[in-house]
Design a protein that fits this description.
The chain is mostly helical and about 475 residues long. It is built from 21 helices and six strands. Helices cover about 60% and strands about 5% of the residues. The protein has a six-stranded mixed sheet with strand order 3-2-1-4-6-5.
Length: about 475
Amino acid sequence: MALLTARLGSILGSVRLGLVAGLIVAANLELFLFARYVKPDLLFVFLILVAFAGFILAYRGAGRVALLWGYAALGLTVVAKDILGAVGPVAAIGLFFLLTRERQVSAQWAPWIGVGLFVVIAVPWYLAVEFQNRGFLWYTVVDNHVLNFTRQRVFPDEDVPLSAQEFLGVTAIGFFPWSLMLPWALARAFRRPWVTVEARIWLLLGLWSVLVLAFFTLSPFKLPHYALPAFPAMALVVAKLWEDVLERAPGAPSGRTLLILPMIVLAGLAAISFVAWRGEARLPSGTLSLADVYTRNLDARGQSAPFPSYTQLQPLLGTLTLVFGAGALGLAAAVWRRLPRFGLGVLLAVMLAFLPVTVEGLTLFSKSRSVKVMAEALLARARAGDVIVHEGPLENSGALLLYLERPVKVVDGAQSTLAFGATFPEGREVFWDRERLRQRWGGRERFFLVSVVKPEKSVVRELDRAGVHLLLQSGGRWLYSNRP
């Protein structure tokens, strides 16, 4: 993704512009973290970028082949995640044509071969899955999108949406420090006249950025990562802003103007990190839940997410103090000496130095929530014929299945991403209600219950207390059995 962004920047401006845009993407906090999750979101974002790249190259005169690559990428976005991957870019390009008042749009930009290529790629997979699983199309298109937008889902999962202010705040943090200069970049992207092809392409990139942010800000349902599809475009318009600053283009702000606010913020972050390193401050309550969906879901259930100890976090806080402090000093020197190139280099260096710290932090958080200890306890105790049950959404302990390599029953797990699948006939033997577990718990079979629900709200309250034995508590989970 960073390479493609850099290439687009080089084509639209200069090698320096492309390098800066590519580094902004490569060193972006949110993209960097999501690259480490087993989720399709980053592939989804990349395919949207490929689609825009195809259109942009075709718009610059590269020919129909580039446009067909764009249509193929749109088809793949639908397969990779959902239909919004195609609807969003098409809507943005349609609005772009309205603003630029271009003619013969359909004939030139919606050729039958391109539309046909999109259909051939996107439709067969959905039809095949619908044929095998009746109702899949309704669930995917209507329930996941239309009803989700109106907060009327038939099969809701446990994800708790952000408010508009929270979404904008998380996005600003995820795109830091470039979010501090994004308003200037977008204003210049929208600046008339749009006479040249390049000017209109920058308009398109700015338009896509604004549409994504505006749509999800106003949407009743949004999660922290929903702005990611706009990040490559945002990186390009910010890189274009810096190119204008360094070239002293008419109307461009000064480098000092762009560097002062990041300098102040980095100095503040250095001070906060230092105080936290000394053990004199704690993370404000609810901060982690803004960016982490799992923590937010636990907060909604009245539970606290497992958190690394201060002893584990202290070395990271010390490193952050040095990184942020050095960055603030570097920016202060750049502002004082009027060295915008040096200041830009400092910002990129700070983000590149910050990423390894986030990896260590993510590792600590992952270990604190890991199901490994629970799985090892089950492997040591469970025998053939024993029944293992998971209480709550199974995706909260997904790695458990990889460790155990045996079937797991699920109780009170219908409010999850597996809710629709639980309605199929084969799901009846997997998804249990509380009554079924209560009846089976007192029988001759040995049961193990892995619960992500705190005891006072767990199904264990409805079981015979004499037959409930707590074997282990680890990673925000409890392991019970009906045998000592």
